[in-house]
Amino acid sequence: MDTMRERFITVTSHLLDEDPRLALVLAEISMDGFRPAQRAHPERVINVGIREQLLVGVGGGLALTGLRPVMHTFASFLVERPFEQVKLDFGHQGTGGVLVSASASYDWPAGGFTHMSPGDVALLDTLDGWTIHVPGHPDEAEALLRHAYADGDEKVYVRLSQLSNGAPRPVDGAGFLTVREGSDGVVLAVGPTLDDVLAATEGMDVTVLYATTVRPFDSAALRAAVGTGPADVVLVEPYLAGTSTAAANDALADLPHRVLGLGVGRAELRRYGTVEEHTAAHGLDPRSLRERITAFRQSGARR
């Protein structure tokens, strides 16, 4: 199976042939995969080198000319380093474009903390009007990329990862999916966390929701899953823990509820390790998730 990043290269290359409005801006990352597209469309496939602020600035300029710019590099260099350009060149200027990241929270541990971005979604959450997609499988990545490219002049972030669930789910770029139904709590799994969440909650009487579009937050789906309350809700996100806790609390503001936000911890792990070791260290492997979810549910039962 190809990776999400490989699928991004394939899909975007094909769409550059089909859509004369689409433009791609790179900062060296993935350039080798896009060389055929650059030869075919030199005016719409631009490599600015390792200049990430310029990457976003050029994308913003292309948007002002009426093109649909796609900007791509590692998440830490796409959202965190050029955040001022993202804020001003798209938000302040009132333009639209698509940010497509790679490497996510800790997908390349050998790159160290400079190449990790667990806070990217939380950072974009400080800005208005961004749609955020977090696919959990290459097929979902393709569907969400196509949706993002065709999404008029909207501001969209597509967060790609090396991690993947075993099978794709039908995604529409909008609401949450119900994967398993239960009557004693809700667990919301985001993107590539779904398989581990399903393994962790096996045998539990909980509803499992699946989110690949996290902004806008699907408050209606969460409320429907919770019912009339009281309810325990666990959020399992592949980025900074607690990123969506406020959104979940707002969705359930008039109902008795508790929310536990699980995700990547704030403490920097100062060993390279493997992706699997980082997942376990952040308590996001199936065994750790089961222990944490069980403890949360039991603490509620003692109230």
What descriptors fit this protein?
alpha/beta; Transketo_C/PFOR_II; single chain; 303 residues; Rossmann fold; 12 helices; PDH/Transketolase; five-stranded mixed β-sheet; seven-stranded mixed β-sheet; 2 domains
Provide the succession of SSEs.
HEHEHEHHEHEHEEEHEEHEHEHH
- Could you tell me the CATH topology label of the largest domain: Rossmann fold
| Assigned CATH class of the largest domain | Alpha Beta
Poorly predicted residue ranges: none
Q: Estimate the global geometry from the Cα principal axes.
A: globular
CATH second-level architecture of the largest domain? 3-Layer(aba) Sandwich
Please give the radius of gyration in angstroms: 19 Å
Report the sheet with the most strands, covering strand number, pairing sense and barrel closure: 7 strands, mixed
- Helical percent range? 25-40%
Number of strands: 12
Alpha-beta content class: alpha/beta
The total of helices stands at 12
Strand percentage lies at 15-25%
Question: What is the topology, as strand order, of the major beta sheet?
Answer: 2-1-3-4-6-5-10
Number of domains: 2
CATH homology-level superfamily of the largest domain = Thiamin diphosphate (ThDP)-binding fold, Pyr/PP domains
In whole angstroms, how far apart are the ends? Answer: 47 Å
**Average pLDDT:** 96
Organism: Streptomyces antimicrobicus
Pfam families: Transket_pyr, Transketolase_C
Protein name: Transketolase
InterPro entries: PDH/Transketolase, THDP-binding, Transketo_C/PFOR_II, Transketolase-like_Pyr-bd, Transketolase_C
